[in-house]
Design brief:
The structure is a homodimer of 209-residue chains. Chain A has helices at residues 20-28, 38-45, 61-66, 81-91, 107-121, and strands at 7-11, 31-35, 51-54, 71-73, 96-100, 128-130, 134-146, 152-157, 164-167, 187-188, 193-208. The first copy, chain A, is an alpha/beta fold and 209 residues long. Chain A folds into 2 domains: 7-132, Rossmann fold (3-Layer(aba) Sandwich), CATH 3.40.50; 137-208, Thiamin pyrophosphokinase, thiamin-binding domain (Jelly Rolls), CATH 2.60.120. In chain A, strands 1, 2, 3, 4, 5, 6, 7, 8, 9, 10 and 11 form an 11-stranded mixed sheet that branches. In chain A, strand 5 (96-100), helix 5 and strand 6 (128-130) form a beta-alpha-beta unit. The two termini of chain A are 19 Å apart. The model of chain A has no long low-confidence stretch (mean pLDDT 94). Chains A, B: Keywords: ATP-binding, Kinase, Nucleotide-binding, Transferase. Chains A, B: Residues 134-206 form the Thiamin pyrophosphokinase-like substrate-binding domain. Chains A, B: Its EC number is 2.7.6.2. Chains A, B: It is an enzyme of class 2 (transferase).
């Protein structure tokens, strides 16, 4: 992150973060954009949203009145609140976006939100999602990723025709597809970085704290 | 379930269930098989495991001694504890298996365990996973699924070449692939059942409580 970069947190309406690293990211953010009902969770935590995006079906009349000048109305029924929030951040001055609160409750929301991250990365490759257990990032082509020895790493192909080669992981992949979500789980970084070469498309990486 | 059916719960080492429906399933089970460290969580809840499967790296010496005649040693490094537990259940007299405790902590474990359910269903189509928010089942070919009006339904294709047609869902699918995990989320049942026709392979269904 450069000194002049503007960091946004996009707070989804899942489980409010509790891990110190996720909370540190929330504290340091220049702007916090809340998906609808997540604004109440942020207020309960003791912070104020800079913007609230959605159709406001999940916020109280008090919040509506108090933050009337921070509401970004987006009634589009064809997309969900997380995508509305992401589109809003993209239209602002965000140089990086971290999604928080996107997992930990309904598992179908968790799966959907994680896969949306891969879509968002086509517009903003540096986007990441921090949970209470680790960080999801998205990589394409070839990339060296910072790590530490023994860090737990999992890889998820959304496109199972993709071939992956790894360097610096305990269980190396050699031009191999990951046709099932479990096949790339429970790997481990051997040193302070690892490298992935990906034939096409993008790959979801989960790095435990 | 017929009167003579033998119901097994396979308890994974994720978040211990808290939803009444998941706990009712645990209470009614004829046999409870714990994946390694899940045995301690079950004991803390006030119940005893019938079997503990794994390499026992996550259980205390006291539990090892107390349940020495219920330990099923499986040191295979090529597979995880959930799969070890599933294989054990299959080799017993289980006529149905419900997986509990497989989600709610590390998201990579959640994703891996959900996709393993689809693998297990090729051996035992009736297998299901109950979470604190709903039930995952796996269907193939054509199937009518019991529901209730307004029930939240999400569909996940592990094979994105699969074509799906739905009847009785609010947002109908017409011979459509689900190439991304979010594309089949947030649907809704219109009546007391819905039907899915699947071109090939199997499909994960999540039904909220």
């Amino acid at each position: 992150m450069t000194q002049s970069s503007i960091s946004y947190v996009l707070l989804a309406d899942g489980l409010f973060p509790s891990h110190p690293q996720a909370l540190a990211c929330l504290e340091k953010a220049h702007k916090i954009v809340c998906c609808d009902g997540a604004s109440q969770k942020l207020l309960d935590f003791g912070k104020e949203p800079d913007y609230i995006v959605g159709d406001f079906d999940s916020i109280s009349p008090e919040v509506r009145v108090r933050f009337h000048d921070r509401l970004v109305h987006s009634p589009d029924q064809e997309t969900n609140d997380l995508t509305k929030g992401f589109r809003f951040c993209l239209g602002q001055d965000a140089s990086n976006i971290t999604i928080l609160g996107a997992t930990g409750l309904r598992e179908d929301h968790t799966l959907g939100n994680i896969s949306l991250l891969a879509d968002y990365a086509t517009y903003l490759p540096s986007i990441r999602m921090m949970t209470d257990f680790g960080i999801f990032i998205v990589v394409s082509d070839s990339k060296i990723i910072k790590s530490y020895p023994g860090q737990q790493i999992s890889l998820f192909s959304i496109d199972p025709t993709q071939q992956i080669t790894s360097y610096g992981l305990k269980y190396p992949l050699n031009n191999r597809p990951l046709t099932n979500w479990w096949q790339g789980t429970l790997n481990e970084s051997l040193t302070d970085s690892f490298r992935l070469d990906i034939s096409h498309g993008s790959l979801l990486i989960f790095q435990c704290y």
